[in-house]
Each structure stands twice: as C-alpha cells, then as structure tokens.
Design goal:
The chain is about 15% helix and about 30% strand. By secondary structure, the protein is of the alpha+beta class. It is found in: Cytoplasm.
C-alpha cells in the first residue's frame, strides 16, 4: 500500500485508514494545529466509534464527531489516503505472496496452538487469479481503495468483472 502521506494529501471529508490497521477506517473532519501540541494534526471521525473524544480537546471544538468517543487527532504519517482500484487489483491478484503472508497461513488446534497450513495447488490457483482478463468476480476488501484510477483502465484490465467486494475501503465518491 501507499507509504505515509503529508498534510497536503488530506482534505476534509476524505476517507482514510490507519497506516497500522487497514480495518480502522474513518473520515477526515479537521486538518491543522491543535493547541498545546506542535505540528499539523488530522482530526478523524472513526467508523468503529473507538477513539478518544468527540472532536473537542481541552475545551476547544475542532470538529463534530458522530459520537462522544469516535474522534481523535492523528499525525499524517499514521494515516493512509489509499490507492487506486487497479493498484489494489495488482496487490491482491498479481503480486506473489511474501514470506510474511506464507507464515500467516495457519489454523488453531483444539489446544489453541498454531498449526501451519500448506495450500495444495496454490500455484494453479495463483495462476488462474493472475489472469485478470478472465476474472468475473473479485474481492478487494480492506485494501484501501480510494479512487477508480484512470478512465477506462478498469474495463481494459478486468473486462469480464461482474461481481466486486469493496468492503472496508475508502471510496467516498466514484467518478
């Protein structure tokens, strides 16, 4: 995914996710200084409602959060503005799994111990999924998709796509 961003990358009402947790998604509600703290801060109203305040800090209202504990101030390097639809496709369907991905393939035993799993036929499955022009269904859930990319790029790369899961992404509009 995209590396850290500076404050010029963010704008009000933009969807973002935490750099460390792509499942922690929210909306930018404030960009600027916070009294008593140096530098630029981004006020985020988190979708899951798990944060520190309602958009006010030390008696100063910076933004209006949806609930008493859904807002927080975050440094720009701890937020990700997302990637294009096609970048997400390449990450999910073209890139080879890393050793870290391979290490995460496990199940828990009855005694709650990690047992490694070997995926039989993995190369065959990866080969089929890597032929994007043949895909009719895909899932890009929680990859940080924030924009569709260049015009016609999607239809050129995945012309047969009929079903798409974009759960937990950052799309606020699709033009």
């Amino acid at each position: 995914m995209q590396s850290s961003s500076d404050s010029r990358t963010f704008k009000l009402d933009q969807r973002v996710h935490s750099t460390n947790d792509p499942r922690r998604v929210g909306t930018v509600k404030y960009i600027g200084p916070v009294e008593g703290y140096p530098g630029t801060w981004v006020g985020v109203d988190w979708d899951n409602g798990e944060a520190k305040h309602d958009g006010s800090l030390n008696g100063i209202r910076y933004f209006e959060a949806r609930s008493q504990l859904s807002g927080s101030f975050v440094r720009t390097q701890n937020l990700n503005a997302g990637i294009s639809f096609i970048e997400a496709f390449y990450i999910r369907y073209r890139d080879q799994p890393t050793q870290e991905d391979e290490d995460e393939m496990y199940v828990l035993s009855a005694s709650n111990r990690r047992v490694s799993v070997q995926l039989v036929g993995k190369e065959k499955v990866q080969d089929k999924l890597s032929r994007l022009e043949e895909l009719t269904g895909a899932s890009l859930s929680y990859l940080g998709v924030s924009n569709p990319g260049s015009p016609n790029e999607i239809s050129n790369i995945v012309p047969n796509l009929k079903e798409l899961d974009l759960t937990g992404n950052l799309l606020s509009e699709w033009k």
